[in-house]
Specification:
The chain is α+β, with helices and mostly antiparallel strands and 247 residues long. Strands 1, 2, 3, 4, 5, 6, 7 and 8 form an eight-stranded antiparallel beta sheet that branches. β7 and β8 form a beta hairpin. The chain folds into two domains: 80 residues; 160 residues, Mitochondrial glycoprotein (Mitochondrial Matrix Protein, Chain A), CATH 3.10.280.10. The protein is built from three helices and eight strands. It is elongated and about 90 Å long.
């Protein structure tokens, strides 16, 4: 093939490729110009939604924090925390912050250590006015506290344990049993019902506790202390929630 023919073929090839490119660009251009505003609009909508969500979350968080601060301030202003004391009848009190129990402990004589575990309020009974039946609407209630008295003897690996109800002005024994110090059986035999014991024996066991100053005055103190702890734990809980939400 002569050089002139080669040049003609090469020129036709270049023209053919150029037409393809031009045709492709002409085909693409109208779509790209119409899609661009749509994509830009969608992106703006997404940004707006994200902004609204952030603002809404910020508003909710701020409102919740405001309510928590107001409630904490109200509780502290209207009835400031007043701890009843850290000792009663020779017992030292451990508040056990953040728990639903408090502990008391003392040595009695040379051979005994007494430990008491006290629940927060965990029950109540109605107190009717004179001549009324129990359970009528509007009656006041008397709150109940569970008290576990454990008496350790220096020369024994066993524990004498009383399960009691502490009412505002008196103590009531529910159970009495002996257990090992090291471990508590899964289902220990806890003796007969206390009320089924001989009356004289019942009275003697109350005297046994009273001799160790586990008596009505201790119950009165515990009700005041648990009332203080209920409020202290409530305020502590609100402060903890507020602190977490501020992070």
């Amino acid at each position: 093939m002569g050089r002139a023919n080669q040049l003609r073929l090469l020129g036709k090839g270049i023209m053919f490729q150029t037409k393809k490119i031009v045709s492709y660009r002409q085909f693409q251009h109208p779509i790209s110009t119409s899609v661009a505003p749509f994509l830009s609009s969608q992106s703006q909508i997404r940004r707006n939604i994200s902004y609204v969500n952030r603002m809404r979350k910020s508003t909710i968080d701020d409102n919740t924090l405001r309510l928590l601060r107001n409630e904490i301030r109200y509780e502290l202003d209207h009835s400031p925390l007043q701890q009843p004391g850290s000792e009663i009848n020779g017992f030292k009190v451990d508040e056990r912050a953040g728990e639903q129990w408090i502990s008391l402990e003392k040595e009695y004589g040379e051979k005994e250590v007494i430990k008491i575990e006290v629940s927060m309020f965990n029950g109540s009974v109605p107190v009717p006015n004179e001549g009324e039946k129990k359970g009528l609407p509007g009656q006041e209630v008397q709150f109940h506290i569970t008290m576990v008295v454990s008496i350790f003897k220096n020369n024994s690996n066993k524990v004498l344990e009383f399960i009691c109800s502490a009412w505002p002005d008196n103590i009531s024994i529910s159970k009495l049993f002996v257990r090992e110090q090291a471990k508590v059986p899964h289902q220990p035999y806890t003796g007969p019902k206390y009320r089924e014991l001989d009356d004289e024996l019942q009275d003697s066991l109350y005297e046994f506790l009273e001799e160790r100053q586990i008596d009505d005055s201790l119950c009165s103190f515990l009700h005041k202390y648990v009332n203080y702890k209920e409020k202290a734990e409530y305020i502590r809980w609100m402060k903890t929630v507020k602190s977490m939400m501020e992070k």
